[in-house]
Design goal:
The complex is a heterodimer of chains A (269) and B (44). By secondary structure, chain A is mostly helical. Helices cover 67% and strands 6% of the residues of chain A. Chain B has 44 residues and is an alpha+beta fold. The chains are: A mainly alpha (269), B alpha+beta (44).
Amino acid sequence: MILLSLMARHGYALTFGLLLAEAIGLPFPAAIALVAAGAAVASHTLWGPYVLVAALTGLLIGDTVQFWLGRYMGWALLGFLCRVSINPETCILQSAESFYKRGKITLVIAKFIPGVNTMAAPLAGSMKMRYWQFLRLDVAGAALYTLTYFLIGYVSRDFLATILRGFRTAGRAMEAVVLAALLVYAIYRVVQFRKNKMYRVVPRIQVQELAMRLSSEDASRVLIVDVRSHGYYDSGAARIKNSIRIEPNNLEEELKHLPKDMDIYLYCT
Amino acid sequence: MAHLLREKGFNTFVIVGGLTAWRKAGEPIEGVPENDLVKLPTFS
């Protein structure tokens, strides 16, 4: 409701800003903004071509920034973006695999795939795609994304209005929905807590303690293992001296080569 | 991953703070060998 009212007053700037924000990786509701903009156009509050230009400009500027950052910052940027994802260790690889599987067409559909949408442009930059080729595919992807949600908003204006009226009149139903959402969130937190509790059974060691062990006669029984995945894409990356690497995405195979008679110390970033 | 290794019978520990803590403590590090770097395909 707030978004619709803002859209009526600052529609073009809001559309541009939210889509730019999403394109540079911020968690803003760009798709919802497009739906709201489509509804605003259908109700003659905004003019369609301006909305589409604002949306496409925001997306293309954001994607271009990400592309060039990916080109010059490489895996350091991807690692940073992945650090805020649900599964940092496999984030880059999954996004890269998406490129493997679908090829360059990934750029056209990436905006519809959560996670990949943020990674696609910097990946294309990192993987040395030519800018004009990137731009061509990105324009197609941005246009497809923009038009899809814009048209959803445009054709469902009456439906959206009905829902909004329903929200106003069905206050109790909304409370129930909010309570249900809170309950689901609480259950999720409990499951996460129990999962983390299970992981806490793995003993932890402080750096100083391990360093002391490495300087003792017992050092030959120590194996330090690097389990980062995205630390291994950047030339010039560092690791603990004499450590070996296990690829987290190929664990079953890697375990065959690990000695069972040594104490294994794992680390990541 | 540490939990999984323990389940498979490896005597596993986790270094608190990871590489960042190790580096901050001034302990020795080395560059990742060129052969270990993961090569991903490029479009060029």
